Amino acid sequence: MLDYKIIVDKLNEALFFVSEELSENQINFIRSDINAGEWRLAFETLCDILSEENLRMNPRVYKLVQEIGYGLNIDSETWESLKVQVAC
What superkingdom does the record give (predicted)? Predict the structure, then answer.
């Protein structure tokens, strides 16, 4: 059984870690999806933005992204391409 509280917490944590790299509109858009219960959409939007903006992320953020993706049963192709953006 999926624990949505954990998913929401992880989405918010990932968003927090990358928030300095995102615009206020991007943050608000993702946060709005989270608050509306659209966790898959929020996750996919976050991944799209990270990819399109080619934003560097620390390993913790990538681990959160993986955990969220697995938790929501989203195809790993959605986030695996982000691995090259992980800063060592």
Answer: Bacteria
